[in-house]
Amino acid sequence: MSVVLHEPGAVADPEPVPSRGGILWNTIRRRPSAAVGAVVLSLVVIAAVLAPWIAPYGLHDQVGPVFGPPSWSHPLGLDDGGIDMVTLLVWGARISLVVGFAATLVSMIIGGAIGVLAGYFGGKTDSILMRITDYFLVIPDVPLMIVVAAIWGPSLFHIVIVIGILLWTSTARVIRAQVKSVRERVYVKRARSLGAGHARIVFRHVLPQVAPLLIANTVLTIAVAIFDETALSFLGLGDPSRVSLGKVIENAFQRAAISSGAWWAIVPPGALVAVVILSCSLIGGALEDALNPRLRVAHVSARTFRLRPLVGRSDSSL
Amino acid sequence: MRGADYVVKRTAFALVTIFVAVSINFVLFRLAPGSAVSNLSRVPHATQELRQALKRQFGLDKSRGRQYLIYLEQLTRGNLGVSFENEQPVSTNLKTAILNTLPMVALGTLFAIVVGTLTGVIAAWRRGTPIEGATVTTALGFYSMPTHWLGLMLVILFTGILPTGGMTNDFLINPSFWTHARDVLSHMVLPSLTLGLVLFGEYTLIVRSAMLETLGEDYILTARAKGLRPWAIIRKHALRNAMLPIVTLVALSLGYIVAGAILIETVFSWPGVGRAVYDAVLNRDYPMLQGAFLFLTISVVFFNLVADLLYYKLDPRIT
Asked: What is the ipTM of this complex?
């Protein structure tokens, strides 16, 4: 067996420090699955945005028999009200994505603000905010969401707020760690000595550095938010007047689609949720991988003893 | 003495978290608008005596602050009020439900830990091969599926082969102990498998990345250079050190297990705590919902503490 060992820490294929576009390109090259995820997610988003124009039938129109099987005019069959499944999926994806994006926005604002404040100011602010985050991290999200949603009553707005105010913990931690390291960099110190105020430093110098990681985190949070919406809807806490993918699953379950043998009423909506969540995980994971310098460590593969090439040099060498 | 310090610190954190959860519970339910939510004595169809007794026990005519103290005091005695639905004490209802949930969840989690660790190790060891690709894709797939939907898929697949609802076969009259045990176990297969598969995906991914990190260390190279067999390297050198992040992340997945239990028990009509949450939501049985939420939160905090202490046992360097 001929084993070629590199010098410790050597880089198999030294690459120049990548620009932001370079990071994107490297990510796609190294993780083609992330590109597939991005394409699939874009298709779902486009279909959801265009729902009023591309849905083949009306959302409330009975166009055939109850639980009608798939046919040429209805490729995915009909649900318990004789409504076309494709129509339900397109409109359902629209509501699910709206909930996912809106709840994520809420949690990004909360988590981003707490992370930046804790990381930037450090000291007492940091320890108080992180203590609060720790408590929220341990308390299980879904039961708390169920309780709050049950007390407030079902509505789309409540669901968005409930999911949003409970999902910010991981964001806050990730952002805090990143802000902490950015704060110590020389250019931030220079800006401060030139008399820049806190707000200016945060918005002009810290946030742009943190933004890519925030985006990666956002994509992952969208996946969790969509999952949570599906779960809440399944427990009967969804907005009764809006059709989301979770609602479609719940409806099929309640109306005994399974015992009626109508698998087409229950398999596609869940599969679509799974595909959306999978796409988000692939994109978010790849972005995080490319952006987090800590993960850019060369691994010796135990089997082949070849060094895994680094994507780019770690930021600490700058 | 740093060790004792760590144990005390973690235990104190767990206790404070439980206190926070208890207080959130009070604020959510008692300060909520609408007396149906906040009034524990509003048991439908209850006798006047029961209502008066509840009012007295929880001091419902006193000030909010006083009510909070009384609530804490009653809690230490295990008094959570009376279920709106069957007029039994919430604690009695919960006890039955907990005993039903525990074996189902334990079986599923055990399955996930064993299979997930195995596939995670294989995926890391065979890095860059189709085996890794297939394992990671499968794991991500299961990880992405909505838990209740995966349960429904299993129902579709196994209808007629395995029982898909409830915990026992009601048509068995006076079964012997073994018949009963076999009956319950056969009902448990699908719910446990659903939880197991969902967690399996998550654990595989966690174990794989922890193993990859460890396999990049110099001592693995040394072990390899010494001529150790691959299995010995994995077992003695890699997996032991990879256990640390695995324990933390399994602890973090506790919330996920709880969420899974609620959804799975709803799908399979398993009469446990999760099903109790669903029924409580459906019937607007607020005292029951309050009690179940409290139990779920406290158990997550408790197992988190266990994980923290286990972590310390595995790696005494941390404080």
From this structure: 0.85
